[in-house]
Structures are given as structure tokens and as C-alpha cells.
């Protein structure tokens, strides 16, 4: 689509024709943008690091908990309490172990008994010979579960080693492999030393686990399994977090299976060709559908990521009914369907106004609601700056007025909105009813804003940092509008100029437009859009209350409205807006010129300046003079008002207090910014004081 927009920054030559000013402004912008970006990135980086750190800690905690709950002790030892079965000297030793300690289900264990037979001399050792050690495991009910008996013997020690320690440690493996029956687990065991000669000082029972499966892996490859375990938990949590994030930012709830199907149906036209190519003749419709759905899911997923990135960077609904919009794929927005608007958009697609209207792609149904598909005017812009201006001298249709007379419906919500802005606005009767008709509210809105007088009003502005300002409800005066335009464009001449020529082009297109001639444009807006790297453009949006005018009425759009004439005053608003942009251009040029002048003052000599002035072309000189005049007269009138402010003149001391004059609440409320550091303002102050308050000696 031909955007018809004006490229910004026309070679860096602006009002003054000197490239230094714009270059400095550009540099200032770039530095500011880069700083903002850097801050944003640092903040995002810090947040990301925090999230990653938290994720890592959670991962470690989860893995640790899993490891310590899933992995039993590899070796367990328990003291053996024994007693002598006199006179046979059989020494059965009893020990009690809880089933859990005894073993983990499913793993083999290997109980072994270590004895410390305290054979004080070699004679005992040589006489004891081979002896048996028997273990009998019993269940909770005292029933024998299993038993095992193993033979062992003490090593021989020479009688010559009289002074040496005669103790021996004997290790006996009682079970080479023991598998627990989970229905009758062993809870204890009796161990018998079947010998009359062995003397025992103490005994210890060791249970060694033989791990299998995951436990084997976890135990034998500790580092590898830890790395793998941590990585998989981390991945799983990240995916979970990612989907939660996606769901959070554009409510995936709406994108359920039914929507997918609807989407499939909506796009049937586009997909038929695709389907024909992808599927063979023989495949039945059901399988085609399911395969298409699968493909669509993946496409939807990729789209979701794309929208997420796009949405974060730009899209915003500045005005209008909240919840009316949804983002869609391929640089589109979906706006809640309105028959009136759809018909207008359809007609506008073949009208000379087409380059000023977002592309209309028909309608679509999502989650049971119908939407019109519109080109996303913010698509592709980086940190866009946007302004919504509602056009026309009235925002209500004549039918609304008729309705308020014939069958008035009171609106509490509108009464509340009214009271919020101005508690004195409703009449006594309206206060009593706690309601106003829609016409009354809309008319009040038009009268309290610049709509009735200037033919347009600013609804909202979003700056490049995402901050949104919507409190223009009481903006009435031309000075306020110009101030808003300057702040919206940050006094950038190239942007203001681009807007100016776009407005002029729109004016031309409106003159040619059959649609415009035959339609009453109520509540329609101009959306101003620019960013610092791309283009500045203006778009016509919102045709929800744009209706064909009766054939008997020939609309002119530039005359005031009177009941029955159907005039909307669209061109009044457009002309006013164009002239305010023009004024803003002049002021921005002056500011730029002054800034440039101040810089020059501080760096170069007056002679150099004169020389520089002489080399300027006639036209530039004339423009600068005009600029100085307008700035001077502006400064003069503003400071005159400021200095006449009695509270600043001290008659006794014969002095004028100009301290904090820039932030003086009286002046600020009148939209006067007396910047005394500016040469023109200071000159004006001196002149005004000389002329008007001669008693003040500076
Ligand atoms: O801007 P505020 O003061 O909030 O008032 C709004 C706007 O005038 C809306 O017009 P637009 O859509 O042109 O922005 C209008 O919608 P209509 O289009 O229905 O007239 C709303 O009426 P309700 O929707 O009835 O509340 C009204 O409450
Ligand atoms: N095509 C579009 N592209 C981008 N943003 C849009 C588009 N249409 C509308 N908007 C945004 O939505 C806001 C409200 O649009 P509008 O059509 O006036 O809605 P409503 O009919 O609810 O008043 C606009 O101020 C603008 O921020």
C-alpha cells in the first residue's frame, strides 16, 4: 500500500538553512534515544539475570530434593547387641532395624557382619577353627522371612607375639544378594555365632545397597547425572515460564481449538490452494483437516512469538472503546465489527482517500465475535509516537439529538465521567437524576474541549517511551494546541513539516473524494504516527459514526453545524490543525534559531556572526527576521503579562522580581513560558520595563 507518508529529515536543512542546528538536534535525539535504549537494555538485562538466577536456584532446589528423597543411603551400619546362650557359648545377637532403613524397595542389598572377636591369645585362635555365622530375618509379625548361614575362621597368630595386639576383625558376607519381598518386609534379624570358643568384643552390621536402573546411574555417575538432571529441569521450567509469559501478554485463552477451526474456515480461500498443493488426491477430508490444523498450530505458535515481539515494541490503543481491538498476524489489527464502519472502509478502498486509510481486509470471526481486519498502522515502527485527533465540530449524530428529545435515556456512566472532569457541569436536575443523555454528554465534551471552536480535539498522545497522556479534555485554546504539537514532535522541524505536507495532501484528496462529499463524518479521527528513524504519517481512522448524508443535502464540511444541515465541520478542523502545525513549525524554527544563536554567541565573536549573516541568502535573512519578529512579539506579549503581574513589582524598592518566572504558577496556567535565558526574551523584558515601568531602574 502506498503510505503516502513524508520522509523525515530532509537532508538536515531546516528553517535556518544551517545544518548545525538540525545536526545538533539529531545528535541530541540520537544520544537521548541511545541512552534510553541503554537504560532499557540494562533494566531488561538485570531482570533477565534475576529471572535466570531464580530459575537456577529453583532448579538446584528441585534436583536436590529429588536426589535426597529418591536416593537411599548406599551403606548403612548398625551396632549389634548380643548375648551369650550359656553353656553352649552360642552367641545369638539381636538387632532391630526399621524396614525403610533396612532397604529401599526394588534394590538388592548385601548385609555383612563385621565381628571383632576378642581372642586374647593365639591359643584361642588356633583352637576355635572354623565357625558358622547365621542370620535369620524376621517380619513385623515375628515370622521368619529368610535366613542365611556362612562359615568363617580366625587367622592364626603366633604365640611369640606376646605383646602385640591380638584382636582380629572378621568380615562375613551374610547375603551376597538380598531382595526384599515388599509384602513381608524384614524389620530385624537375629545373628548367631555358632562357636563355643570365639570371644566377641563387639559387632557391627553393614548393609550395602546394590543400585539398579536410575539409582545405579545417579550413584555411579554423580556429576554427569547431576548436569543432565539440572539441565532438563532448567529447560522444563524455562519452557513453562515462556508459555506463561506468552499467555500473560496476549491472553492465549482466546486462541483455543475452536478459534483455530474458525481461523481455518476464515482463511479457507487462502488455504485452498495451499491444501491442493500439499495433499494428494486420495486423502480424505478429515485427515486433510487434521493435518492442516497441525500445520496451523505451528504457524500460530510462530506467529505468537512474532506478535509478542511486535506487541511489546509498539502497539497501543490510544483512544476509543477499550477491549475493541485484538492484534492479528501479518501486521493487522482486528477491530470489533461494525456494519457502518465496514461499509465505509469498503467504499474507501476504491476512493481517492485510500492512501490515507488503513488497508481493509474484510472481516473475521474470533471466539464468537466478528471483527474487521485493518492494517496495523504501527507495524514496523520502532518506539512510535502517536496522537489521536478527533475531527469535526461535533461528535454526536443528529439522531442522538433527536433521540434525546423523543425518548431520552439517562446514562449514569456518562454522568459520572462528567462529574469527574467538572463536578459543576451537570445541572441540578441531572445531579438529582444522577444521569445525563448521551447527546448531552457528547455535546458537553465538545464544548469543553476544542471540538466546537476549533473543529478538532486531541484525544491522546503516546510518546516514544510508551507514556500515554489522555488528559486533554479541557484543552481549548490555540496556544495549548500548539504547545501540545510542539511537545508531541519535540519541536522537530522535519517531523512537523512532514505532518504539514501530509495534511495538505489529505486536504487535496478530500476535495477529490466522492466518499467525503457524500458522507457525514462524525467522531472520525486522524492518527498522527512517527518514529525517530522512519516516517511521519497521518491516517484517517474510526468510521463507526460515518454515515451517508441524505441525498437532499449537499455537504460542504467547512461551515458551522446547525440542526438539520448535517454539517460535520471536518474541513474546519483540518484547516485549523494545518494552521497550528504551521505555527508550531514557526515556533520550532525560532527555537532552533535561538538555540543556534546562543551557541554561536558563546563560541564566536559578533563580527564573525555578522559576516555569517551577510553570507546568508536574501530569503533566509527575511525568514530569520520574520522569526525574530514573531518570537519577539510573542516574548513581548508574554513577558508583558508576566511583568505586569503586580506581585512581582516591589514599588518600595523600585525593583522587579523575575525569580522563578519560568515556573510561576500563574503564568504556567496561562501557558506562558518565560525563558529568560533566551536573548529575545531578555531583550523584550528590558524593552517592556523601559516602556512600561520606567521607575524600575535595572
Ligand atoms: O471519549 P469519552 O468521553 O469517553 O466518550 C465516548 C466517546 O464519545 C465515544 O465516541 P468515539 O467512539 O468516537 O470515541 C462514544 O462512543 P460511540 O461511538 O458509541 O458514540 C462513547 O459512547 P458510548 O459508547 O455510548 O459509551 C462515549 O462514552
Ligand atoms: N489501524 C490501526 N492501526 C493501529 N492502531 C489503530 C488502528 N486503528 C485504531 N488504532 C488505535 O486504536 C485507537 C482507537 O481507535 P478507534 O477506531 O477510534 O476506536 P473506537 O471506534 O473504539 O473509538 C486509536 O486511537 C489508535 O490508537
List strands and helices in order, with pairings.
Elements: E1 6-7, H1 20-70, E2 75-79, E3 81-82, E4 91-96, H2 99-102, E5 108-117, H3 122-128, E6 130-138, E7 144-153, E8 170-173, E9 178-179, E10 188-194, E11 200-210, H4 213-220, H5 222-250, H6 257-266, H7 268-278, H8 285-313, E12 325-328, E13 332-336, H9 339-348, E14 360-366, E15 369-375, E16 385-391, H10 398-406, H11 412-421, H12 428-433, H13 438-448, H14 451-454, E17 456-462, E18 468-469, H15 478-489, H16 493-512, H17 514-518, E19 519-522, E20 525-530, E21 535-541, E22 545-548, H18 570-603, H19 606-614, H20 618-643, E23 649-650, E24 655-656, H21 665-669, H22 679-692
The chain binds inositol-(1,3,4,5)-tetrakisphosphate (4IP) and adenosine-5'-diphosphate.
Adenosine-5'-diphosphate (ADP) binds next to strand 15 and strand 20.
Mean pLDDT: 75
For the sheet with most strands, the description reads: 6 strands, antiparallel
Return residue spans where pLDDT drops below 50 for at least 5 consecutive residues.
Answer: 1-18, 86-107, 115-122, 252-289, 309-313, 603-632, 640-646
CATH class of the domain at 385-584: Alpha Beta
Can you list the strand order of the major beta sheet?
1-21-20-16-17-18
| Number of DSSP strand runs | 24
Number of helices: 22
CATH-wise, what's the superfamily of the domain at 385-584?
A: Inositol polyphosphate kinase
- Beginning-to-end CA distance, first to last residue: 63 Å
- At CATH level 2, the architecture of the domain at 385-584 is 2-Layer Sandwich
Strand content: 15-25%
In one word, what is the shape?
elongated
Structural class: alpha+beta
CATH fold-type name of the domain at 385-584: D-amino Acid Aminotransferase, Chain A, domain 1
C-alpha-based Rg, rounded: 44 Å
Could you say which small molecules are bound to this protein? inositol-(1,3,4,5)-tetrakisphosphate, adenosine-5'-diphosphate
* Helical amount: 40-55%
EC number: 2.7.-.-
Biased composition (Acidic residues): 267-284
GO biological process, one term: phosphatidylinositol phosphate biosynthetic process
Catalytic activity: 1D-myo-inositol 1,4,5-trisphosphate + ATP = 1D-myo-inositol 1,3,4,5-tetrakisphosphate + ADP + H(+)
Amino acid at each position: 500500500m502506498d503510505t503516502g507518508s513524508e520522509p523525515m529529515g530532509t537532508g538536515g536543512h531546516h528553517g535556518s538553512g544551517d545544518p548545525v542546528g538540525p545536526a545538533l538536534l539529531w545528535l541530541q535525539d540520537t544520544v537521548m534515544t541511545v541512552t534510553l535504549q541503554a537504560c532499557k537494555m540494562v533494566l531488561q538485562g538485570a531482570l533477565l539475570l534475576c529471572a535466570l538466577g531464580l530459575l537456577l536456584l529453583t532448579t538446584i532446589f528441585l534436583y536436590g530434593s529429588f536426589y535426597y528423597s529418591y536416593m537411599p543411603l548406599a551403606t548403612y551400619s548398625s551396632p549389634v547387641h548380643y548375648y551369650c546362650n550359656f553353656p553352649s557359648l552360642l552367641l545369638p545377637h539381636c538387632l532391630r532395624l526399621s524396614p525403610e532403613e533396612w532397604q529401599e524397595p526394588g534394590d538388592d542389598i548385601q548385609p555383612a557382619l563385621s565381628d571383632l572377636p576378642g581372642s586374647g591369645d593365639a591359643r584361642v585362635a588356633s583352637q576355635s577353627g572354623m565357625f558358622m555365622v547365621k542370620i535369620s530375618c524376621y517380619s513385623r509379625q515375628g515370622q521368619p522371612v529368610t535366613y542365611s548361614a556362612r562359615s568363617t575362621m580366625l587367622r592364626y597368630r603366633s604365640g611369640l607375639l606376646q605383646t602385640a595386639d591380638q584382636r582380629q576383625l572378621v568380615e562375613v558376607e551374610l547375603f551376597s544378594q538380598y531382595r526384599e519381598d515388599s509384602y513381608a518386609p524384614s524389620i530385624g534379624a537375629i545373628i548367631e555365632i555358632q562357636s563355643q570358643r570365639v570371644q566377641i568384643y563387639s559387632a557391627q552390621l553393614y548393609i550395602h545397597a546394590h543400585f539398579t536402573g536410575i539409582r545405579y546411574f545417579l550413584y555411579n555417575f554423580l556429576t554427569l547425572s547431576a548436569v543432565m538432571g539440572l539441565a532438563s529441569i532448567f529447560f522444563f521450567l524455562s519452557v513453562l515460564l515462556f508459555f506463561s509469559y506468552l499467555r500473560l501478554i496476549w491472553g492465549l485463552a482466546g486462541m483455543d481449538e475452536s478459534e483455530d477451526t474458525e481461523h481455518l474456515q476464515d482463511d479457507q480461500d487462502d488455504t485452498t490452494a495451499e491444501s491442493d498443493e500439499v495433499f494428494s488426491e486420495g486423502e480424505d477430508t478429515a485427515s486433510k483437516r487434521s493435518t492442516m490444523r497441525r500445520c496451523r498450530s505451528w504457524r500460530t505458535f510462530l506467529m505468537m512469538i512474532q506478535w509478542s515481539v511486535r506487541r511489546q515494541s509498539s502497539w497501543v490503543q490510544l483512544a476509543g472503546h477499550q477491549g475493541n481491538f485484538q492484534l492479528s498476524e501479518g501486521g493487522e489489527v482486528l477491530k470489533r465489527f461494525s456494519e457502518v464502519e465496514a461499509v465505509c472502509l469498503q467504499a474507501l478502498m476504491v476512493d481517492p482517500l485510500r492512501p490515507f486509510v488503513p488497508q481493509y481486509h474484510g472481516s473475521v470471526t474470533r471466539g464468537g465475535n466478528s471483527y474487521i481486519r485493518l492494517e496495523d498502522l504501527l507495524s514496523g515502527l520502532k518506539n512510535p509516537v502517536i496522537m489521536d485527533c478527533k475531527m469535526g465540530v461535533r461528535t454526536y449524530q443528529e439522531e442522538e439529538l433527536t433521540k434525546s428529545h423523543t425518548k431520552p435515556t439517562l446514562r449514569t456512566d456518562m454522568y459520572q465521567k462528567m462529574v469527574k472532569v467538572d463536578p459543576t457541569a451537570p445541572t441540578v436536575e441531572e445531579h438529582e437524576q444522577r444521569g445525563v443523555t448521551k447527546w448531552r454528554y457528547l455535546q458537553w465534551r465538545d464544548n469543553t474541549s476544542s471540538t466546537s471552536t476549533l473543529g478538532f480535539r486531541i484525544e491522546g498522545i503516546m510518546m516514544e517511551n510508551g507514556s500515554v497522556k489522555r488528559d486533554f479534555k479541557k484543552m481549548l485554546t490555540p496556544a495549548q494546541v500548539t504547545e501540545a504539537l510542539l511537545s508531541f514532535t519535540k519541536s522537530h522541524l522535519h517531523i512537523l513539516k512532514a505532518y504539514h505536507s501530509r495534511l495538505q495532501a489529505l486536504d487535496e484528496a478530500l476535495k477529490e473524494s466522492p466518499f467525503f462529499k457524500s458522507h457525514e463524518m462524525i467522531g472520525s479521527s486522524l492518527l498522527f504516527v512517527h518514529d525517530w528513524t522512519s516516517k511521519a504519517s497521518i491516517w484517517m481512522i474510526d468510521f463507526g459514526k460515518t454515515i451517508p448524508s441524505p441525498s437532499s443535502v449537499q455537504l460542504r464540511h467547512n461551515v458551522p453545524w446547525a440542526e438539520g444541515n448535517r454539517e460535520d465541520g471536518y474541513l474546519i478542523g483540518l484547516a485549523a490543525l494545518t494552521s497550528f502545525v504551521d505555527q508550531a513549525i514557526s515556533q520550532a524554527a525560532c527555537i532552533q534559531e535561538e538555540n543556534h544563536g546562543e551557541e554561536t554567541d558563546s563560541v564566536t565573536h559578533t563580527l564573525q556572526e555578522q559576516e555569517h549573516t551577510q553570507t546568508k541568502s536574501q530569503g533566509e535573512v527575511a525568514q530569520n527576521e520574520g522569526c525574530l519578529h514573531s518570537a519577539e512579539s510573542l516574548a513581548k506579549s508574554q513577558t508583558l503579562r508576566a511583568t505586569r503581574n503586580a506581585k512581582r513589582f516591589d514599588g518600595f524598592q523600585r525593583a522587579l522580581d523575575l525569580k522563578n518566572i519560568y515556573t510561576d504558577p500563574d503564568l504556567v496556567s496561562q501557558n506562558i513560558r518565560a525563558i529568560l535565558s533566551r536573548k529575545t526574551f531578555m531583550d523584550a523584558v528590558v524593552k517592556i520595563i523601559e516602556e512600561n515601568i520606567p521607575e524600575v531602574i535595572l
